[in-house]
Design goal:
By secondary structure, the protein is of the alpha/beta class. It folds into 2 domains: 136 residues, Aspartate Aminotransferase, domain 1, CATH 3.90.1150; 236 residues, Aspartate Aminotransferase, domain 2 (3-Layer(aba) Sandwich). Helix 10 links the parallel strand 8 and strand 9. It is globular, with a radius of gyration of 21 Å. The longest helix is centred in the C-terminal third of the chain and has 25 residues. Helix content is 42%, strand content 14%. The chain has a 7-stranded mixed β-sheet with strand order 2-10-9-8-7-3-4, with helices on both faces. Strands 11-12-15-14 form a 4-stranded antiparallel β-sheet, covered by helices on one side.
Length: 409
């Protein structure tokens, strides 16, 4: 039994042309929350879904073949990660990020959000302060509140169409609130920043000075645009490695969210034990079998597919950029440095959030992620997923153009 593709299948993987990503696949009636749950969530049934962060592309053929091969075995008993699995994860991060991680420091998880909740439970107690930088991925806030921790926010600074960190505010919030844990998002969702080495080092220095642990969500690390580099936070210094839980997954990269597999890197033995103890209290033990099969196949054979996908996404981003420049007065692209999620500034239209939301859903027939979901700092913004065939993206922008400037609500 192996997760590697056959020789014939590997040949199919290289190269991928645009036709592979241009294919429009009907995802309705496939239990996809992106397509089948609009009405349950108060969204018109005919709205074009451009919200949740999964892609409308087929995963690499080598993943499908690996899953099919395992399915032919016909037994799906209790399973756990193998040395070959850990080797695939290690090789991916060593070759793409020059990051070396021992297999004993890799902790499997059913997902980043599960890992986030477990990490907070492991590293803090009820009432402890946890710091985030809004606008940011909304489960950060939910996890802190659900676990009865104190949410502390050091908001990102938005100026002249770009986001930056207010380091003075960051440190002040830590000292004033006795912050125990900082949750970093890099690349940042939703604003698309890829933090520089200098920015990360400054954050790290402040955390070390005030004895703050770090959970670094790096799930979008494989989507970084030209001119930018993803740096694994724990790789910066040995001291930061000893106080950081790094959250990674193949799910965003290879469209595997439904298979529930992620990998957390925890180099500090005491923290790793605390994490395992907290995880045990959730009742979770072994990872999803097909998730492991898919992850190994992706990291061993999926790189050509990913490289082609990144080129396609650059084309989609350029398409959005040109469309906004030509047809969308008052709407501004926050230029992304990473992720396939585009953050759009609608504040130039002068619409209140409720009216903007209603227009987008009813007049435009679009299902987007509204900025306020990511915190009050997201007011006036919308997040749109561009990981879809170019024709779907064109339809979405056409709907937006026709509906957003209508005087009707």
């Amino acid at each position: 039994m192996t997760s590697e593709c056959s020789t014939e299948e590997t040949k199919k993987d290289v190269p991928f042309d645009r036709n592979f990503f241009d294919e429009i696949i009907d995802r309705k009636n496939s239990s996809a929350i992106k397509y089948d749950y609009a009405k349950r969530r108060g969204i018109p049934d005919d709205a074009l879904p451009m919200w949740v962060a999964d892609m409308d592309f087929r995963s690499p053929p080598c993943i499908n073949e690996a899953i099919a091969e395992r399915a032919r075995h016909g037994i799906y008993g209790y399973s756990d990660a193998t040395p070959e699995y850990f080797s695939a994860v290690q090789n991916w991060y060593r070759t793409r990020y020059a990051y070396h991680i021992d297999d004993c420091n890799i902790v499997t998880s059913p997902g980043i959000v599960f890992g986030l909740y477990t990490a907070i439970a492991a590293l803090t107690r009820e009432g402890d302060s946890v710091l985030i930088q809004r606008p940011v991925y909304y489960p950060f806030s939910s996890a802190i509140k659900d676990l009865r921790r104190k949410l502390v926010n050091s908001p990102l600074v938005y100026r002249d169409g770009q986001y930056s960190i207010d380091f003075d505010d960051f440190e002040r919030k830590i000292t004033e609130n006795g912050v125990r844990l900082f949750i970093l998002c890099n690349p940042h969702n939703p604003v698309g920043r890829v933090w520089t080495r200098e920015e990360l080092l400054k954050l790290g220095e402040i955390c070390i000075a005030h004895d703050v642990y770090i959970v670094s969500d790096e799930i979008h690390s494989d989507f970084v645009y030209q001119g930018h580099e993803h740096i694994i936070f724990a790789s910066l210094t040995a001291e930061l490695a000893q106080r950081t839980i790094t959250c990674t997954a193949p799910s965003k990269t290879f469209n595997l969210a439904g298979l529930q597999i992620s990998n957390l890197f925890i180099q500090n033995e005491a923290i790793r034990k605390q994490y395992y103890d907290a995880m045990k209290r959730t009742g979770y033990s072994q990872p999803n079998l097909m998730g492991m099969i898919a992850c190994r196949a992706a990291y061993e054979r999926g790189a050509p597919w990913l490289d082609a996908l990144r080129l396609y996404l650059q084309g989609n981003l350029q398409f959005v950029r040109e469309s906004l420049d030509m047809d969308f007065p008052g709407v501004r692209l926050v230029e992304p440095e990473g992720t396939y999620l585009v953050w759009l500034d609608f504040s130039g239209l002068g619409l209140e959030d409720d009216k903007l939301k209603e227009k987008i859903e009813t007049r435009c027939g679009l299902w987007l992620d509204h900025g306020s979901m990511f915190g009050p700092e997201g007011s006036g913004f919308q997040r749109i997923n561009i990981a879809c065939p170019r024709a779907i993206l064109a339809e979405a922008l056409e709907r937006l153009k026709k509906g957003i400037y209508s005087s009707e609500i």
